[in-house]
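Severity: low
Component: inverse-folding endpoint
Summary: output formatting inconsistent between runs
Steps to reproduce: submit the following structure tokens with default settings.
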């Protein structure tokens, strides 16, 4: 009889499905891993499970998905796919969100993952309970409830917990002087579904990352004028004639929005595309996880609690190729659970984390970019794979990520119409 390690997985989006694929399936591992996944919604797919709802859903839960009606991926599917499960051939490289949901459903089906998922079950509380006899010195009490019947709670104990609850669901809304005097609509991209109500209007969008740029482009097709307000370097790509860049917002006075350079516009709609907060409200404070200015600590390799290494969080890194990174992170977590990877001491893990953080600060990044990856992600993925003694990611992910980045910088309006050909020797852009 092998040693048994039971894992609770929170969430059945891309990260949670990947966790089940590597933790729940009977494998060759030296320990007997078993996994149970809790998912509050009725389906797999997480943020790719599109809904017209905003605010709260029919169970009174905050709507999780941030997808909008006409969203297409900002990475080619050849780059998005998990390493062991390609997207079906015969489709464009940049696809609609429905295609990604279907892909995740197919992935779950192919690996027989659904049977491990408890749907419509929300994790309400997780807390460590000490157990000197167990491998990691603690076990985890996971309290869940049925979303249809929140009064009915259940508590189960697991040897490990892997959080795959996503981090694009709790909007970050900046505090802007005078915003309450704005008479028009004030929204966040989390609640954006389509351009309805913006025909002929003057729209100000704050934040020029993926959401801000993409939604500005959608808006510019119907609005009178769109002002994309941001503090990043000016975008040099071609933009629609009615889409103008402005610095960040200084203040709002009724319908007048004043920017940091002193210029101002009279606007009808103000939309924050300012990103999201990490949200682990269901972790008891004894779990030891702290979020401060969008930095989550104490996490070794942005993944594993150095205090309790049987607690992991998948996918908190930003500006990444998500699915493949999740795959490496999950395999790393598995290798810690089954003993293939022996972690350094808690003090050494914390020193490593601090060094990574200080390097970021010295290179000019603010604290809120503690988990920002960009070009750093490839070395990070390789390092995790080495430490876990598991297969590294194929080099085509980096090639495609960098190629897409250049196409986007060059022409943000057109890049999603390009297609890639991936063959074993080279990545080519066609059309
Ligand atoms: C608008 C938008 C566009 C994007 N476009 C792309 C793209 O083009 N390409 C790309 O690769 N990535 C894209 N991403 C990134 C995307 O976040 C990842 O692709 C990926 O889907 C994240 O998966 P996840 O499992 O970490 O989180 P999620 O997909 O958010 O899944 C988390 C799951 O956890 C569940 N959950 C949360 N809390 C609880 C709880 N307490 N109890 C039970 N269940 C819980 C949720 O219901 C959800 O199902 C986009 C993201 C957004 C928001
Ligand atoms: N497929 C697609 O086309 C598509 C579309 C939308 C979103 N997405 C994905 O969805 C995820 C979330 O993207 P996101 O754009 O919503 O969030 P995000 O990547 O976190 O970006 C938020 C942006 O808002 C800026 N910001 C925050 N507060 C601000 C303020 N007060 N003033 C000015 N700017 C401010 C941030 O600047 P700092 O960086 O300086 O903090 C950052 O640039 C990403 O994974 C993204 O790839 C994909
Ligand atoms: C693994 O654990 C499960 C649940 O306890 C048990 O049913 C199964 O027989 C075990 N498998 C092995 C190989 O020990
Ligand atoms: C999924 O289940 C089917 C039917 O039981 C089985 O034939 C198949 O091998 C399983 N797939 C995996 C990846 O375990």
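Observed output (run 2 of 3):
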């Amino acid at each position: 009889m092998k040693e048994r390690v039971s894992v609770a997985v929170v969430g059945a989006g891309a990260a949670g499905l990947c966790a089940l694929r590597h933790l729940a399936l009977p494998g060759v591992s030296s320990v007997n891993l078993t996994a149970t996944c809790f998912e509050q919604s009725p389906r797999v797919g997480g943020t790719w499970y599109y809904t017209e709802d905003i605010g709260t859903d029919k169970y009174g839960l905050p709507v999780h998905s941030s997808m909008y009606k006409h969203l297409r991926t900002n990475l080619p599917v050849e780059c998005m796919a998990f390493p062991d499960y390609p997207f079906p051939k015969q489709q464009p490289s940049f696809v609609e969100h429905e295609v990604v949901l279907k892909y995740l459903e197919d992935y779950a089906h192919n690996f027989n993952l659904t049977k491990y998922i408890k749907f419509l079950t929300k994790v309400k509380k997780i807390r460590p309970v000490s157990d000197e006899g167990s491998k990691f010195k603690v076990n985890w009490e996971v309290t869940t409830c049925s979303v249809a019947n929140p009064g009915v709670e259940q508590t189960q104990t697991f040897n490990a917990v892997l959080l795959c609850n996503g981090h694009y669901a709790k909007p970050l809304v900046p505090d802007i002087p005078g915003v309450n005097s704005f008479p028009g609509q004030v929204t966040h991209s989390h609640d954006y579904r389509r351009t309805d109500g913006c025909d002929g209007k003057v729209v100000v969008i704050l934040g020029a990352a993926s959401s801000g740029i993409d939604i500005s482009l959608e808006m510019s097709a119907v609005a009178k004028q769109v002002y994309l307000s941001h503090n990043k370097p000016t975008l040099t790509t071609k933009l629609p004639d009615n889409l103008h860049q402005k610095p960040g917002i200084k203040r709002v006075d009724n319908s007048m929005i004043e920017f940091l350079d002193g210029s101002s516009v009279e606007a009808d709609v103000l939309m924050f595309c300012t990103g999201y907060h990490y949200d682990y409200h269901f972790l008891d404070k004894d779990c030891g996880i702290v979020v401060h200015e969008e930095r989550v600590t104490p996490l070794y390799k942005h993944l594993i609690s150095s205090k309790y290494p049987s607690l992991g969080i998948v996918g908190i890194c930003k500006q990444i190729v998500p699915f493949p990174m999740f795959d490496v992170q999950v395999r790393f977590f598995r290798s810690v659970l089954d003993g293939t990877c022996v972690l350094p001491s808690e003090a050494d893990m914390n020193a490593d984390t601090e060094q990574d953080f200080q390097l970021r600060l010295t290179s000019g990044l603010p604290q809120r970019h503690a988990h920002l990856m960009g070009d750093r992600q490839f070395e990070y993925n390789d390092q995790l794979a080495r430490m876990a003694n598991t297969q590294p990611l194929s080099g085509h992910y980096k090639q495609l990520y960098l190629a897409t980045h250049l196409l986007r910088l060059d022409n943000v309006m057109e890049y999603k119409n390009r297609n890639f050909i991936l063959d074993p020797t080279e990545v080519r852009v066609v059309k």
